[in-house]
Request: fold
Amino acid sequence: MTSRIIATGPDGYFVARDLESRARSPEPGGPSLTGDTRPNTLQITAATPSAPGVGAAPRFREYADPDERSWLRCRVLGFLDTTYFDDVWPTRPAPAPGLSLVAVSGDDVVAICDASLAEHGATIDTVVVHPDHRRTGLAGALLDELVRRLKARGITRLDAWTRDDPGTRAWYEASGFEVGYRYLHVYVTGVDEMADAVQAQVGLEPRSGFFHADTQDPGVEADLRRRFRRVHACHRFVRDL
Ligand SMILES: CC(C)(COP(=O)(O)OP(=O)(O)OC[C@H]1O[C@@H](n2cnc3c(N)ncnc32)[C@H](O)[C@@H]1OP(=O)(O)O)[C@@H](O)C(=O)NCCC(=O)NCCS
Reply:
């Protein structure tokens, strides 16, 4: 599903056309979506009564400093059912030069899309949607706006590094990205695994560690997966703009 950004209002919010059509044609059993007649807003009523911002209208704009707490909550909740479940930030790090977009429902951030910029390309640092707001096109709408802004700056390539979570892979593939490279993230936990992975230095007993294994050899990968319980493939997804 690809959304198209159709307007940026004077207040800095922008709107996605395909979200409007979803809003007018809710899927049976899915969230109840109701289109708003105003030009730059969209009414969405989430299916889960406890969802943040229930009944409010998810809208799209740039991140602002007062969003920080809500942004962190959205990020951690969105990562909970993924291999990034323990990648928790108590504060939002100062971003690299780039673009930071959010979808907000009321005062709550419900989707995030951050990208950092280099001379000829950009990298998605974070894309995450609050679990109660998934499959309603929010990530697609934020990506469309990100791509529009990158193209306006003459950037021709967008990439992202992410692990092997099936839903995330499916979203990147549905969004026009292809896998360009792959390596392994190896988490080493417990005395036995650590003894297998590293040698202790004076006075230090290693208890856990995180390693990159830059291998394309299936035999090496199989051996690492046999020796260590938590191994993730990390993929570089690439899309020409
Ligand atoms: C990946 C993620 C951002 C997608 O957000 P989303 O707003 O739910 O995605 P969209 O509604 O834009 O999905 C667009 C299309 O992508 C595909 N897609 C998205 N999520 C999918 C899933 N879980 N399973 C299969 N396909 C999926 C579908 O083709 C979908 O279209 P459809 O709903 O019409 O079938 C969201 O699931 C998420 O936050 N995941 C956890 C965070 C994460 O791992 N981020 C990457 C590391 S930074």
The pocket of coenzyme A is lined by residues 1, 78-79, 82, 84, 126-129, 134-140, 162, 165, 167-168, 170-171, 174 (CB under 6 Å). The chain has two domains: 5-161, 181-240. The radius of gyration is 20 Å. The chain is about 25% helix and 35% strand.
